[in-house]
Design a protein that fits this description.
This protein has about 475 residues and is of the alpha+beta class. It contains eleven helices and 23 strands. The strands form six sheets. A six-stranded mixed beta sheet has the order 1-2-6-3-7-21. Strands 10, 15, 16, 17 and 18 form a five-stranded antiparallel beta sheet that branches. The chain has a four-stranded antiparallel beta sheet with strand order 11-12-14-13.
Length: about 475
């Protein structure tokens, strides 16, 4: 009976759901663009106020709060409205910040991660409110603005506010992610140092964000153009799958080598094609006039690229059922050094201290220095037998007709920031996850299922006696 009432009400809200998603997606709230991020935050807070909720911004406009109900316990619903860069907009079928509803999908950057789910969470609260349900616990929706970068928003919030007793974030996938791998960002620096060879290195660049598999990379070099063409042709013969992913452009005396990959979330590197790796593999066949670049290539090839399906850098313990993933996401250079940034998702028994130790060993061998960007988060796991997760499993099974399995994810969500918090949706089993990719979009049918699911879960947890 309750489920049918929820479904029937949400069905009447579809047009508003679409319109609200499009409106917030159209704000290009890339994490470092604080003006646009603030605009998106104020928009969702204003929408919550118009629905009759107690809603406000706090922590210098870095966090939004929407509250519903009263009680001794607090249920957290954690979302974020900042997004990763869209990359080259020409690679999108529809502009990433000009959202449309087309072919049953809401398109645009943030539709999946995490603006669409944020709107879904808000409509779940609205559904309970409009159906006349009064929660006997406080439901607090916490809206972040720096989830895709350094988490300063949520760190500041935790310093000044009481934390929820338990909760969920719609920033993963179904059924229930009750364990998340760790997270580390490691910047590896190689000093530029001239040596003998065939090609001078002018510049080196790749990637768009710390947590996106790089769709593009390039290096500008100077040297014998005929020799380079011979080397490239030989490389392509040995790696024919890269034939359409390498572009050579002459720029006066210089040669610009571009590589093209495919963006994906760095927690699932196997879903993308790493343009930096393609470039490094090609460069490994050249004699470059820089010892630092040679060391970068040597390290990347031996320890990462040729070892990515095994145990790179010997990070993982032999008794761990999960495995650490490591992906180069950014490449840069200055007049003094080359930097390549690696995004790691650590196995459940691999910790920040293990990462530091393994990189220290490699640093001695390959002559580099590194830093962990002061941003390392350990793996988490929440007991699946807690009452809240049992209710979550019940809601999922009743509304999806599928078994509520508990899974481990390589993703890093705000679940790491709060006690007893897990990821719950929005991606359903078998659905293509376009998070951080070109043509990001979310099915309206699935977004409606999410709203129904979240509303019913909050009913079971905070309303039902």
């Amino acid at each position: 009976m309750v489920v049918e009432r929820i479904k029937n009400y949400v069905e009447t809200q579809k047009k508003d759901i679409i319109d609200d998603c499009i409106e917030i997606i159209n704000i290009p709230s890339i994490s470092h663009d604080y003006g646009e991020v603030k605009k998106a935050l104020h928009l969702i807070i204003d929408k919550a106020k118009s629905m009759g909720f107690d809603a406000y911004c706090t922590e210098n406009d870095s966090i939004g709060i929407v509250e519903f109900g009263h009680g001794e316990e607090t249920i957290g619903v954690l979302v974020h409205i900042d997004v990763v860069p869209a990359g080259d907009e020409n690679d999108w079928d529809n502009p990433p910040f000009s959202s449309v509803y087309k072919d049953g999908y809401i398109w645009g950057r943030g539709s999946v991660d995490d603006k669409g789910p944020a709107i879904a969470s808000l409509y779940a609260l609205k559904t309970l409110k409009e159906l006349g349900f009064t929660p006997s616990k406080k439901i607090r929706m916490i809206i972040g603005t720096q989830e895709e970068v350094d988490w300063k928003d949520i760190k500041t919030y935790k310093e000044h506010n009481e934390l929820p007793d338990y909760g969920f974030t719609p920033d993963g996938e179904f059924p229930i992610i009750n364990a998340e791998k760790g997270f580390a960002q490691v910047n590896v620096n190689f000093r530029r140092n001239n040596c003998t060879g065939d090609f001078d290195v002018i510049s080196f660049d790749g990637g768009i964000s710390d947590n996106v598999i790089p769709p593009k990379a390039n290096i500008i070099i100077k040297g014998d153009k005929q020799l380079l063409n011979e080397k490239v042709n030989s490389f392509v013969l040995s790696r024919p799958e890269y034939a359409d992913k390498i572009i050579i452009e002459e720029q006066g005396e210089n040669i610009n080598i571009k590589t093209v990959g495919k963006a994906a979330h760095s927690s699932v590197p196997e879903l993308g094609i790493n343009a930096i790796y393609i470039l490094v593999e090609l460069l490994s066949t050249l004699e470059l006039k820089d010892e630092g670049m040679r060391q970068l290539i040597d390290f990347s090839m031996k320890e990462i690229i040729n070892n990515k399906n095994k145990n790179p850098l010997n990070l993982d313990k032999t008794d761990d059922e999960t495995r650490t993933s490591i992906a180069a996401t950014l490449a840069r250079c200055t007049s003094d050094e080359y930097t390549i940034a690696f995004n790691l998702r650590m196995a459940l028994k691999t910790f920040g201290s293990d990462v530091e130790k393994c990189f220290s060993i490699a640093a001695d061998k390959y002559k580099f220095d590194f830093n962990m960007d002061n941003f390392c988060m350990e793996p988490i796991s929440v007991n699946k037998d807690t009452p809240f997760l049992r209710q979550m499993a019940k809601a999922y099974e009743e509304l999806s007709g599928l078994k509520a399995e508990f899974i481990t994810s390589g993703g890093t969500s705000y679940a790491k920031a709060m006690p007893n918090t897990v990821s719950f949706g929005p991606i359903f089993p078998g659905e293509i996850d376009l998070c951080h990719q070109n043509n990001e979009r979310i099915s309206l049918d699935n977004l409606v299922k999410c709203i129904n699911m979240y509303a019913y879960l909050l009913y079971l947890t905070a309303v039902e006696k």
